[in-house]
Amino acid sequence: MFGALADPTRRALLTAISDHPSATATELAAELPISRQAVLKHLTALADAGLLDRERSGREVRYRVTPEPLSDAVSWMTEVGGQWDERLAALGRQLGGPTA
Amino acid sequence: MSDRIEREVLLIASPEEVWAALTDPAWLESWLAEEVELELRPGGDARFRDGDVLRTGWVEEVSPPPARDDLAGHGGRLIFWWAASGEPASRVELTLDPAAHEGTVLRVVETRPLELLDLVGLPLPGTGGAGYGPALVAA
Predict the structure, then answer these.
(1) Residues on chain B touching A81 (C-beta within 8 angstroms)
(2) Can you list the alpha helix ranges (DSSP code H) found in B24-100?
(3) What residues in A contact B3, CB-CB < 8 Å?
(4) Distance in angstroms (rounded) separating the CA atoms of residues B64 and A8
(5) Phi/psi of residue A98, nearest 5 degrees
(6) Smallest Cβ distance to B5: which of A84, A91, A100?
(7) All structural domains of chain A with their residue ranges
(8) Residues of B with CB under 8 A from a CB of A
(9) CATH for A2-95?
């Protein structure tokens, strides 16, 4: 399950969906700097990993983050990961190194 | 099973310099949290304050970078546990590895155990390292 979260685009997508429940692939593609095609590919991977629920609504499929406790794991990883990105960027500036 | 995040960063500094940045409170307060107290021994107390958030915890492992002719297999490792009030504790593992051109790769792994059994064998807070996981499980 957590392998599906290794990709930063997928984490960004999950964050976008948790901020915007019942989003469609078209709506998500408008929020992120990737194509609708790429969004669909990531949504499929996330749904297959059990992190997203799909719901058909007319011609569209709407996505939402799977209820607790999985979404708790996702928000923990998104929040903690973001905190470390900031801390490591600060450490890199202190030590004068490029951050990778 | 545990929740886990992992990050790696290349720093243009020797393992000894990065180790100082990980263990000297004056350095730590420039990047990790606004106020840091870290007792550098297994079972030692740790305290981190950032704005309104206070995290407390304990130190699991302190392994400074080995001398250059040593073959320890890593360039230093610091492991501590921390938790904000009312939240479950998570484990932070900071590992250094020497890189080319006097650089150092710092790897951060933060994990949050989801089951009590994951805590077996680890020093518990406030016991000076004398109490270990099995006591917790037996409780």
Answers:
(1) 5, 7
(2) 25-28
(3) 2, 73, 76-77
(4) 32
(5) -75, 145
(6) A84
(7) 2-95
(8) 3-5, 7-13, 17-18, 21, 27, 30-32, 90, 103, 106, 108, 110, 112
(9) 1.10.10.10
How do the domains of chain B map onto residue ranges?
2-114
Residue A31 contacts residue A75 (beta carbons within 8 Å): no
- The pTM score is 0.63
Specify the 3-state DSSP secondary structure of A16: helix
Question: What are the structure tokens assigned to A72, written together?
Answer: 């708790």
Q: Domain B2-114: give its CATH superfamily.
A: START domain (3.30.530.20)
Query: Could you read off the pLDDT of B78-130 as tens digits, one per residue?
Result: 999 998 887 778 999 999 998 888 889 999 999 987 654 444 445 444 444 33
B2-14 pLDDT, tens per residue? 789 999 999 999 9
- ipTM above 0.85 for this complex: no
